[in-house]
Amino acid sequence: MTEPTPRESRALYNASGPVVAAADTTRRAALITLFAAIAAIALGYAAAFGSRGTPAWAPWLLALGIPAALGAIMILGATRGDRGVGPLKIPFAFVILMLVLGFGAALALPASEGPLSRLWLGLPARAAIVIYGVGLLPIFVLPIAYALTFETQTLSAEDVERVRELARVNQAERDTPLARPQSVRANEARKPSDNLMPE
Amino acid sequence: MIAGAGVSALLQVALPNAARPAVVAVGILYFAVVLGISVWAARRTNTARDFFVAGKGIGLIALTVASVSVSVSGFAFIGGPGFIYAVGLGAMYIVLPAAVTNVMGAWVLAKRMRLLGEARALITIPDAIGARYRSRGAQGLSAVAILVGIVGYMATNALAMGVVINSIFGVGLGWGIWIGMGVTLAYSASGGILAGIYNDVFQGTLMAVASVLVFLFVLNFGGGLGEISRTILAHDPTFLGPWGRLTPLAALSFFFVFSMGSLGQPQAVHKYYMLRDPLQLKWYPLLKTLGLVLVLLLYFSVGVGVKAFVLSGRLSPLASPDQATPALLLNVTPILLAALVFSGVAAATMSAANSFINIGAAIVTHDLPIALGRRVKNELRWGRTVTVLIAIAAAITAQRSGTMVAFLGIFGWGLFASTLVPALAVGLNWQGATRLGAMASIATGLIITLALETAAYLKVFSFPAGVTASAVAMVASFLVFFIVSWLTRRNAQAEIDPDVRLVMEL
Questions:
Q1: Between the CA of residue A182 and those of A178, A186, A189, B498, what are the distances in Å?
Q2: Which residues does chain B have with pLDDT short of 50?
Q3: Which end of chain B has fewer surrounding CB within 10 Å, N or C?
Q4: Helix-, strand-, coil-residue percentages of chain B, each rounded to 5
Q5: Measured between beta carbons, which residues in chain B are less than 8 angstroms from residue A71?
Q6: Which CATH number fits domain B49-400: 1.20.1730.10, 3.20.20.70, 3.40.30.10, 3.40.50.12780?
């Protein structure tokens, strides 16, 4: 089997490259959520500058905004091709919910810590919810979900080969500039492969 | 993850003199191993790529342990437990994000940065920003932002090394700074990142072992976590509340800055380039998270344990909260365990210093010349030269003014977060981001962080409880990034090269 020519390789890339609507919808939703979450966090901070001190609702904006922002940026990173986030929607939803419930419980539940408090794995209830629910439980969900879906959702050997092939094509074109028409070579001056990028 | 908070907090500590024979012996053994690894690595460093990104790459386990090592500074061993001792469980919001930050980094950055390394042979974070936006300006601006952060980090790490080495060997702070920086420099300049990585592996292992042993010792000494909690609840129930003595806004603010901000920390993000086989990323987040949990066991157990021991009268009241770890080690634990932890603290500061020296040298010899339209001819030789200069400058700065050095170290984490997270982490995953949006965001993060931190340092301005300059700067940087990108969206697609677009779409 012969190596594909640079032109064939580019055609191969162009045939499989475009992103389709499903992923765009996921990305758009993640971006809107990220923006809204950051705006909510900003509002929470802004409220703290008021003359009467931090209002009671300000921490709630962070308690909701932080899980939303983290979830949104993870979804944005995990979205690929036309598949959106696929089966990862379940672990993402679970962890976002855990963070919201953990922070929410810490804010909403009355302070009941005392010498007679019932302990959960060695800690009083509200502390146990935060330490174990927010700080430990996600460890057993997200990294394992990442590993289990790695080939289908994150990176496959074919993906790596596509990138390497395109790199080889670009390198070959740089190595043989005279083999191409003047117009193509002029356009090459705008290519960033040599790290000297025009503004 | 907590390198930023670490050095500045460590500086507040006047560590007690721990120069006992066992501590000195373990300290000497530690430095001998570091030098041995450095000699081995120097023989394998022949090119600039070897020097800055470890040539053909590092295996999964080594890279994971090294990454854990550079993510944790002496703060996890000294300042952090002291912070818990002072404010209770609210201090845990600095480390709780570790449950999500590594896998978040893997989804958002690791794959795309590693593939950009394949496509373009990139070696720095500004390289990635430059490639993403096809912009020397964005590359140069991000390089300047990182360099400003590194100046502070390096000076504080140099001083922190001096404090720790003085405590172990009793040589005085000045000699401690020069010995620590000299050893770090020896392996940074000779073996570059390769020496750094394998020393990080050794140092990270040492830190994890020391942390787990202290955790087990504290639980055993205190009769289990339940008994420790009962003692605290009888005297100070607020300590074990979900926010400790912090306000909810302050605790949540820590969580925000140390979770989202982790995506902009160059010492950790830079490591993504170095993994030998991109497919090995599969297990990287799980292994790194587990490694971090091990190293952070000491943070929690000493902070909570010492509080209970003091309340029950088993340990004398502390002169200051930062004495929590030293007091436990020198009064309660076996001396060999104390020796391991002191060497672990030295390891943490040296590991962070090495990483920042390497990144700083790459910026000076690689990114800034590219931003100015030039290339350095012999990047390896200049990389070594700049490494020496950065180390010497950091050591001299550390000796001149402790107060100023502490100030420089405060804003490192927040500066990296506010300047890099939107442009890099969102930018590599959103084709609608524009060059102008990225540059405006980086400039916003840089200016707001420096202005607010300086104003707070000079006491001309104070934040309401729970609000920090880092958080405000990061939020502002995000909003500017989105708004400017949206206003200039017409240019977005034209600014992405085909190979970068492929990497972003995979």
A1: 8, 6, 11, 20
A2: 1-12
A3: C
A4: 80, 0, 20
A5: none
A6: 1.20.1730.10
Structure confidence by residue, pLDDT tens digits, B377-416: 777 788 888 888 888 888 887 777 555 665 666 678 889 9
Place of tokens 């609840």: B233
Q: Which two tokens stand for residue B15?
A: 């560590």
- How far CA B106 is from CA of A103, A128, B54, B100, B271, in Å, comes to 24, 28, 20, 10, 11
| pLDDT of A197 over the 70 cut | no
Per-residue pLDDT band for A178 (boundaries 50, 70, 90) equals: low
Q: In chain B, where are the structural domains located?
A: 49-400
Task: Give the 3-state secondary structure of residue A62.
Answer: helix
> How near does any CA of chain B get to the CA of A180, in Å?
18
> B333-358 pLDDT, tens per residue?
998 898 888 888 888 788 788 888 88
Neighbours of B418 (CB within 10 A): 32
Amino acid making up residue B266: P
Between chains, do A66 and B259 touch, taking CB under 8 Å as contact?
yes
What span, in angstroms and rounded, lies between the C-alpha atoms of B50 and B191?
9
Query: Alpha carbon A68 to chain centroid distance?
Result: 12
Residue A57: burial class (beta carbons within 10 Å; 0-12, 13-18, 19+):
exposed
Structure tokens at B469: 């300059």
In this prediction, residue B14 carries a pLDDT of 62
- Out of A35, A69, A164, the one facing B118 most closely (by C-beta) is A164
User: Which residues lie below 8 Å from residue A96, measured CB to CB, with a gap of 6+?
Assistant: A67, A68, A70, A71
Average pLDDT over residues A92-117: 94
- Residue B329 corresponds to which tokens in the numbers above? 């080690």
Closest by CA position to B269, among listed B145, B144, B112: B112
Residue with tokens 């170290």: B409
The answer to whether the CB of B252 falls within 8 A of the CB of A62 is yes
Strands A119-120, A123-124: parallel, antiparallel or unpaired by DSSP? antiparallel
Residues 6+ apart with CB under 8 A from B480: B422, B437, B440, B441, B444
Residue A19: predicted pLDDT: 42
Q: Which residues contact B403 (CB under 8 A, 6 or more apart)?
A: none
If you ran DSSP here, which 8-state letter would residue B323 be given? G
| A105 contacts on B by Cβ (under 8 Å) | 242
Confidence grade of residue A190 (pLDDT, cut at 50, 70, 90): very low
Name the residue facing A73 among B281, B425, B503 (closest C-beta).
Answer: B425
Contact B272, B109 (CB under 8 A): yes
Contact residues, chain A, for B120 at CB < 8 Å: 167, 192-193, 195
